[in-house]
Amino acid sequence: MSFWQSNYIKDVITTLDSMEKNDERDMGRRDFLKRFGVGAASAVSLMLLDPFKSVASSIGSPVRYAGEDDGATSDVRMTYRLQNGSGHPVSLLGFGMMRLPREQADVDRLVDYAIAHGVNYFDTAPMYGGGRNEAVTGRSLSRYPREKYMVATKMSNMSPATWPFEKSKEMYENSFRQLQVDYIDYYLLHSIGGGGMDALRNRFLDNGILDFLLKEREAGRIRHLGFSYHGDVSVFDYLLDNNDKYHWDFVQIQMNYLDWRHAGRGRRRGGDADAEYLYDRLEKLGIQCVIMEPIRGGGLANVAENINEQLRKVRPDDSPARWGFRWVGSHANVLTVLSGMNRMDHVMENIATFSPLEACTASENELLARIADQMAGFPTIGCTTCAYCMPCPYGVDIPGNFAFYNSAVTKGLLPLPETTAPDYAERQQAYVAAYREAVAEVSRANRCQDCGECLSKCPQQIRIPNQMSRLVELTRKKRV
Ligand code: SF4
Ligand code: SF4
Question: Measuring CA to CA, which residue among 225, 50, 250 is closest to residue 154?
Answer without folding.
Answer: 225
